[in-house]
User: What shape does this take?
Amino acid sequence: MLSLLTFLPLVGAVVVVLAPRSSARWIALTTSLLTFVVSLIALLRFDPSAAGYQFVESLPWVPQYGITYKLGVDGISLWLVLLTTFIFPVALWFSGESIHHRERAYYALMLLMETATLGVFLALDLFLFYVFWEFALVPMYFIIGVWGGERRLYAAVKFFLYTMVGSVLMLVAILVLGIGAGTFDLEAIAQRNAAFRSDVWLFAAFALAFAIKVPIFPFHTWLPDAHVEAPTPGSVILASVLLKMGSYGLIRYNLGLFPEASAWAAPVLVAFGVIGILYGALVAFAQNDAKKLIAYSSVSHMGFIVLGIFALNAIGVQGALLQMVNHGLSTGGLFLAIGMLYERRHTRDMRQFGGVWARMPLFGTLTLLLVLASVGLPTLNGFVGEFTILQGAFLRDPLAAGFGALGMVLSAAYLLTFFQKVFLGESRDPANVHLRDLNWREVASVAPLIVLCFVIGVYAAPFFGAMDASVAALLQSMNVARAW
Amino acid sequence: MTLLIVSPILFPLLGMLINALFGQRMRERVVGWVASFAVIAAFAASVVLFVQLSQSHGEPLRLTLAPWITAGALNVAWGFLVDPLSAVMMLIVTGVGALIHIYSIGYMHGDPRFARYFVYLNLFVAAMLVLVMADNFLVLFVGWELVGLCSYLLIGFWFQDVKNAAAGRKAFVVNRIGDVGFVLGMLLIFATFGTLDFETVFAQVKVRGESLAAVASLITLLLFIGATGKSAQIPLFVWLPDAMAGPTPVSALIHAATMVTAGVYMMSRAHVLFELAPTTQALIALVGAITALVAGSSALRQVDIKKVLAYSTVSQLGFMVAAAGLGAYVAALFHLLTHAFFKALLFLGAGSVIHAMHAAHGDVDPQDMRAMGGLAKRMPFTFLTFVIGGLALAGLPPLAGFFSKDEVLLAAFADNPLVFVLLGITAAFTALYVGRQIVLVFLGEPRSANAAHAHESPAIMTMPLAVLALLTLAGGAINLPGGGWLHHWLEPVLHEAAKPLNVGLALVFTLIALGALALAWVWYRDAQRARLEVESALGRFLLSAWHIDAVYHATVLRAFYTLSTICSQLIDIGLIDAAVNAVGRSARAAADQLRAAQSGFVRNYGLLMFLGVIVLVVYFVVVR
Assistant: This one.
């Protein structure tokens, strides 16, 4: 089933290339919806009480080097897989609004990216993981580089090289691990190799690759450029899914393979998480470009996730996992909202708007809900994630939680300022007078995200419930878990 | 039965949904009455619960709806609780709330976003009920934040004027500063007790007792920081005067009667923790008293009819907070209750005046008291009820405010001389600004065309005034001195001994109030005095509330903007990104020199990386 899930989009990509151009979007959309259905079936059949991998598929690939084709899902990857299969149809749906040339190539690349990202979350073999990881880079490079804004080439190359530098070192680490152990099987390595558990260098090689992807301060400067230049659906995928590859990797590989090194490095990563929260928020506040503002808000929100992960307790890690989904929903939604504005006015400069809520009442209300989700208002999803992370962090390091909590004030400051500049007050440009409110297609793209924000916000228990066993097992294997 | 417990929350939510979905297509009256009946139904349900509670002799009613957060050991459910304390708050919220909903039908008549207004107002009532009915800290915090959201939305309701929008944002952000304190308090509570449930935490406090003294001091301090935001105390009170940008019924409901008292409610709810922390208690009493004095003195020189009441509210909240700090929770809650009556009455009365000034098409600011005068003849009913509210605020017997304020002063007199002196001076100020306001608004001759042509407001607005005036007249009977009904009712929750009436004290403060009112009449019959006094240095100092806002702008805000600019310009662009680009360029230059033939530079990188990988792998595998 997981192979079907992973490669269904790839099949769709092939069909898109072969089929006539006019049908590209519909084929892509149908494929991604089918993929979503497959993932829902997996969800229904998922046993939340089991700690280990489920639906495991394993085939020898390059047996002489111990490389296997092995997929599986557990409570740690489950919601990220569902986030991925959920966000791709949304992004593809919205692509109809913003992508108007070379559609076939675009939709094929998007589907390729879906296969790659699903592979990253599902792979249980280090080599296979690395293949998917690199494979995910390429479509985004082209999507920014071909369908992006004015400085798209600079942003694309920066994105590509930056992440390449990180992943090359990870490749070294993977080869060292695999050759040393005689196998690339993740579970086998984790069980067999006590010697690696405290290897700081291998830990650092993985951590750097993931830190760039997350991104953790100070490796974040590729992100605003990539977001600003990427087309709206590209930004949605980048924020919702691609960044999560980094934070997922930190849990699965850094915590899973190098528990002692993780415990050793945790104070440093906690510190960088907190710096990211505050720094990202402070920089976000100074932006005039709405997309840049949201990009820096991602840096801040991802800082919370890093903080939760390196709390190294169940509360913190579960909070971080849920917050990955939350961030995908609310930030993905905000990028959609900015895309809707951009399609109308061809600018993202907040100083040129003002009073938009009066012209577009529905749009204003929906955007406000996304803003509030991102601000961390209770009954919406962001609050559950942030509070849980802070609780986990507080149990490890109260001071870090204290500084991290200041992010609550700062996010209110910059996001409500964003909302005020664009939606409140009087219009600062005559062009705003003729803005029309959302059409049904636009509402349909963003409404599912908002509904989920509410569902997670008031009833997070089942989401946490499914990850409970796996996170507990991970922490137990790390031997650093405390009573919490 | 189970649904009955949460029905006070569900009715306004239902009203909100109906108006949110269909409000645009329904007639104004229908929208208004749907919303009002939702709150009336919530009031009825609260009465039923109240009766049930009194029949079960204060044995609390509980309901756990569903699990909410279950991460590791962190377990929080949607749990609700009706005990004597929450029952009183529910009656205040839904009772005063219903009156203000009805009043709003008249006040908001003709507003293009009429339905939206009632959606927010219904949501507010639901959120406030979540706050007072929560059975754990985190659900309380849900209500706490949601009322803050409604406050934000309603302060900025007329958002086309960016000043209103900015006032809403200020309220939200300043409250968030307090909320960080509240959140940290909860984190510490969980770290200490392993739960956030009221019952378990308080039971553990009783068992573990003094061994918790140090951590309780910190917890209560953090929770109190939250209270300074929501209940507008120094240092975070600055948002409340600006919050007057919202429609006046909103000021009455949210920024006088209910939301701003949430901090006082929270401290009463968690009094078991606060009682373990005498240091925090002393600080709270002092902060409350200083806030009362600073805000009370500022009210003396305001010229905007609502700003007088806003500073008065901050000042009266200071009384309640001081009482809580002194451990006199019954007095704090009693004053909360009477204040809800008479301050809602005063705000609605002010709304009636503004409505009349606004309708009478002139060119003056309809809220400027310098342009009013002579309204007693033109709006006799509003005048009468406003005077009742004003005299209650001034603390004259036998009005409700007299009894509750007396209890607070009595507690201070017994325990803390400094707090007593500060509150005593404030009491004199209170009577003075009340007298000043009544004289300037209602007496003398009209000082503008608006005032001259003002008319009494419609019945839908004056009827709520009448009801609140009656409650203000009779409200003191709820807790007559020496252990009245409220005392007994709250006994199972607060376990507080009643204090007997101190006749001498009551007499002295009645005389002070009468004297101050007389002084106001002598001074402000000549309206010229009000015009001139705000122009003096002292006048400007008090008009701007001791320049505290200006100090924040010059220090905290300026530092924040500077830091934000430094991070975005100097560090992010100037340092980090410049370094990244420099690395990119030098790598490219190095590659240019290395390569012999012409080839794409990405391929060069690829080759370089490939070689590097091999070298490193060999090093790690073979050499180490």
Notes: Chain A has 19 helices and two strands. The longest helix of chain A spans residues 314-345. Chain A touches chain B through 74 residues (CB under 8 Å). Chain A has one domain: 2-483.
